[in-house]
Fold:
Amino acid sequence: MDKFPTNSPIIEQFWQSPPEPINQILDAPPPPTILLSPNREWMVELEKPLLLPIALLAEVEVALAGLFINPKTNAPARHNPYGSIKIRAIGQSQGAIASPEISKTVALPDNAQIGFLRWSPDSQKLAFTLTQATGLELWVVDVADCTTRRLTEPVLNAAYGEPYCWLSDETLICKFVESDRAKPPSEPAVPPGPLIQENLHGKSPTRTYTNLLQNPHDEALLEYYLTSTLEKVTLDGHRTVLVSSSLIHQAIPSPDSKFILLTTLQRPFSYQVPVSYFPKKIQVVDDAGKLVYEVADVPLFVRRTTKFDEVRTGRRGVSWRCDVQATLCWIEALDEGDPTCDVAKRDALFELNAPFSDTPKQLWQSEYRFHSLAWGKEDVALVWERWYNTRKERIWRIYPQAPETQPQLLLDRSYEDKYSDPGSALMTVGPYRYRVLRFAPQSHVIYLSGRGASPNGVYPFLDSFDLETQQTHRLWQCQDPYLEEICYLLDDEAQTVITRRQSQTEPPNYFLFNLRDNQVPIALTHYQDPAPQLAGVESELVKYQRSDGVQLSAKLYLPPGYDPKRDGPLPMLFWVYPEEFKDKEFAGQITKSENTFSRPSRASVLFLLTQGYALLSGPTLPIIGEGDAEPNDTYVEQLIAGAQAAVDYVVERGIADPNRIGIGGHSYGAFTTVNLLAQTDLFRIGIARSGAYNRTLTPFGFQGEQRNFWEAQQTYIHMSPFTHAAKVKAPLLLIHGEKDSNAGTYPLQTERLYEALKGLGATVRLVVLPLEDHGYRSREGVAHVLWEMVNWCDKYLK
Structure:
């Protein structure tokens, strides 16, 4: 723990365990991850522990350009692999439902570390990697009989991007570490010269990224670990080289498997931004590795503004069109990528058919910035455009085979308005194995699945939407007492679905049923309550009002066995995270469900319910800036108003003692916590985890703020709780991961706040967690965080 500030007393400390039953609940196995085959006939259950032993976090890693690489395996460090694979046939065909088969466990070596799972296009095989001491092996399992085979030695290269993908039902393309690769380059004992950077013209604002390249040795290491060959591998293990040693990022087959879209990194590298901003070369090669077409030479992305809608110039978002054999598509900015330019159109969508020798065809232009796209068929594709300043979103139907046809506007809304959210278009595997829109038998009808936020609560739904008439028909909607969501639609008639269902008393499980026959749902999983000690917890979605009339809400949790008449007001902790809005109307919308099965995991604040505390989780703290006003210009005032309304509500209900209310949060919630301690006397303690507190250290924007420090100097200063540290009187617990890689929340933020508070005589405790990132992942680290939180609350709140 060598990151403590200088001249601060260091307390010798070993890892601590929280009181029971918290310690016991931490070891409860989490529900498996579910993975369905493309044809929806097979279901795979993948199991892994939720928390890792800290010894795994202590393994050697190399941090380069925002990547964390395990040098022994040439794969991502901090990886939490699966430990087992179970496969079952779901038992549905053409809308009929039969009882699913019993799961079969795939036989694998002891202590298997499974990752990078990918279905074959025909859904009959599942590929995956096994991590060995020296690298990643490629394996395949035949799902019908659960037989496995190893295709390669531990030589896959997963340092950046996916290590492999399916080319066809019988062949994969893989990135391999060079067979004759030497040892990593050694760092020179004597520096060869000074490190020099310069900016000779133009603006180049960058956010506060971490773990960037520092020197020429880092550049050499990046090239060493990212260099791969691209090879074709058949199911009998035969390998054929397609592309010689390059800095390969990704290789994506065309839908007809005849071409490969190859992206490689290029120099010059940057010491200011992560690898995703580096120069790239994008090419098309054929299935023998021969160069067919140069798509783009993408230069280093140098930002000119802090506006969120800035993008690269030239071709970006290059991909394959999903509904045809081999057609490239991409976006090009019409405003030089600069959102401050006053232009009529921002982006254009282009396509180019194989053999890529014709002039690219323009399919569509957008007034806002292109956001996303879903391919359907020759006369249907859906395109989303968005503009951050206004929070506006439009959805268009375009006609790919007849781009001269006028695009059809399907929806024009604010994406802040959760009540008008139409849901997501459901997809299926198309004739060329890529995901496309799922159409009803009436070929102009698609399906939409949404969360269903409304003034009455959250009730997910399934709709059909007619693209010709623009009429929506509600096919299904979940009802109390459940929160049930459509996970998979299994047929074009929208008869058979798989849902994930939970209630306040029932843990989440997956069910298979027919929407039209009112058949009793068949349970596909039977996951049990991981924390039965909390079965008596009461949760309630509560609503109240801010002084300016904005409607607010929160989830209120009361500990098991609590009787307000007998027990009276409880000590309570608020757990907070504010959100910016451009429209007052949408700031108070209900986006939480009352019907969730609430159980804690990792370092959840819900664990405090076992110790007799009440919790107010996620009280809405909207920061609103309508019209030309920016939300953050009145951040502090709106924050105080929201917090005051929440305190008044719980006190008036008689469930909280105003002298025993604390506040806490993680990341931006930690920033909020210290602000409220400095600006109000509403709270008796604070718990701030992995936050940023001095906004002058993030001068080119943070969270939803687009202006830089010099454009909004007073806002940055006034919002920074570091500026107001002298006003913090309540005891404050500061926690931070030593290896926080999140932009802006580097540990220095917490260390400097601790030094300021200590120097000002505040009651403050700093806990730096060795090896932990922005989120805490080790069993030891999470247990210690919970121990610290319980002790702090017991000492200063209870």
